[in-house]
Specification:
mainly alpha, rod-shaped, 0% strand, 71 residues, single chain
């Protein structure tokens, strides 16, 4: 039996993807319902931008460092 090592970056990518989906979902919910947090720059919709960025980075890391099945 061969032991397969999984890169830590794969798990970081999975976490970024999960957090990105959650934050992006909250940001979209804010846009739809109009329940915007009481902050100074609420008009920039930071949860939408950060959620999308984290989702994209998480998917890149998850795909790039996914465990190979052919090994």
């Amino acid at each position: 039996m061969h032991s397969k090592e999984i890169s830590i970056w794969f798990f970081i990518g999975v976490l970024l993807t999960i957090y990105g989906v959650m934050i992006l979902g909250y940001g979209i919910w804010e846009l739809i319902t109009g329940n915007v947090a009481n902050v100074v720059l609420a008009n920039l919709h930071a949860p939408v931008w950060w959620g999308a960025l984290m989702l994209v980075l998480g998917l890149v890391y998850s795909i790039k460092f996914r465990p190979d099945k052919e090994q």
